[in-house]
Amino acid sequence: MAGYEELNNRLINDMMSLRPLSGSFLSLQFVLFYFSSLSSFLLSFFLLFTSYTPRGYSNKHRLDTRDAS
Hints:
Layout: H1 2-16, H2 20-68
Keywords: Membrane, Transmembrane, Transmembrane helix
Transmembrane segments: 25-52
């Protein structure tokens, strides 16, 4: 447990002070936040368009079957 506490304290000190590790950690956090927000934005557009298309497809399919019969 002592080794884990020492590693934890070293990580906390690196994050609190402005060292290269904290800088790379912050840039990684920013990149992860950017990609997650971009993917959620694209997913919302995908769900919006897929929620509109089945009605059009079902109406077209119903018209096609009615014209065939």
